[in-house]
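So, read this over?
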Amino acid sequence: MRNLPFAQPGRFYRGNLHAHSTRSDGRLEPEAVADAYRGEGYDFLALTDHFMARYGHRVTDTRDLRLPDFTTILGAELHGPALENGGLWHLVAVGLPLDFAADGLDESGPSLATRAVAAGAFVGIAHPAWNGVTIADARSVPDAHAIEIHNEGHTRDSDRGGGWYLADVLATRGRRFSAFAADDAHFGERPDRFGGWVQVRAGALEPEALVNALKAGHYYSSQGPELRDVAVVDGELRISCSPVEAIYLGGPGQLCRWARDEAGQGLTGAAFPIAAFAGGFCRVTVLDSTGKRAWTNPIWLDEA
């Protein structure tokens, strides 16, 4: 399948796509944020400070923080009117040029998304449950590549850090996108870091290669478990992973399959028939014994 990363050239790189520094409302300088992620074994970071008038409408320059074993991707969190509930859009844009400019005080969220994509960025709808993003809201930004399905910060502060409710409905309606986990780290008193990340399959640890892989959906998301392979073989979806307690395959509505570890030894794989999902989508979730999950992107079964 074109949108499965496991058979793609290259290797997996671990990264966070959503974090803030003192250039907006974060507590740490950009250098300290990058050092923290590198120290936790991450390969890359997108520092996505708020692109707002109060912070100078700027993209934080992190190019001088790149090292041979760690890189950064330029990005920002974009805001514009207006959601159905009257709130601002929150859009994570990763791969922006430094000269990405404000195009008017009242530029809408959908317009910002379109401009960011045209400028070369990977764009995702951030923390939709926390914002109250509706199906109609999400359908108004057809250029967005992805939905943030786990936000560690808002999982911790309000239990509204999920996004699969929105992703599943849109996928059932035929909208094609990927789904990413991130921290939304501010490094304040509440724990909001190192709790959700992407594993991006790319040919090199370089910003352009990583952004292109994100746009292609060549990644999976995790809070801890490792997905080692997911492939369609002889009418089955075959999954290999680090030891977990359960493996789930879900799709539209009540379509689901599951495997559970009843012996306490840890499951490291499963195979599910996918005929019932034909012509639509399915997605995999694995759950380990500590309650941590990993997720594939929606898998579109009509893609060769």
Q: What stands out?
A: The chain is about 20% helix and 30% strand. The first helix runs from residue 30 to 39.
